[in-house]
Amino acid sequence: LALLHKERGDTEKSVRWFKKAGRAGDADAMVRVAIGYLKNGELHPAIDWYSDAIEAGIRDPRISTTLRLLINAAQGDAVAMEELGRVYDGFGLADLSIIWLRKSAGLGNLDAIHNLGIAYEKLGKMTEALNCYTDATARGHAQSLTGVMRILNGVDQFGAWLTDELGKDNPVAREFVREFREDGHRSSSSD
């Protein structure tokens, strides 16, 4: 019944039936309830439902990993938050992925800022993705430059971005130009 109500868009009835099924011992329903709590920003009830699902015998190792990460994230662990973002991306839950990546990024985790760019790029939100990649490069995350290049696929667009970022003393942009000049110098001296 929970799935039927979910398909019809009746979230309230769907959640009610998932909770009933979960209380009756259905581990999959427990996981769905936990995810529902997370989508509403309620961390501790989600931890409880995930714990119950594991006790009920759910065998998916991603659930126990998720529970461990949630417990660590509840204690302010930015790396656990970033890992949760990647786990939920793997589950196909972009909304939860972005929530956790944002939390981790807000604590200064460069990998989370970069992965948030990837998440936005997957959703076609290129402005948000470029902002994340630019922020990450400004903080020294070299891998994010590939994201900038992917979005600004034209030489003129990338050149304008590079000029702007050099003016802001972006360390990754500075290193890119240095390496580009060295490669050009090596090429011309080998001729």
How does this structure look, described?
- The chain has helices at residues 2-7, 11-23, 27-39, 43-55, 61-74, 78-90, 94-106, 110-122, 126-138, 144-151, 155-167, 171-189.
- The chain has twelve helices and no strands.
- The longest helix has 19 residues, at 171-189.
- With 191 residues, the protein is mostly helical.
- The chain is elongated, with a radius of gyration of 22 Å.
Offer a quick outline of the entry.
By secondary structure, the chain is mainly alpha-helical. Helix content is 79%, strand content 0%.
Task: Record keyword descriptors for this entry.
191 residues; mainly alpha
Helices and strands in order, then pairings?
Elements: H1 2-7, H2 11-23, H3 27-39, H4 43-55, H5 61-74, H6 78-90, H7 94-106, H8 110-122, H9 126-138, H10 144-151, H11 155-167, H12 171-189
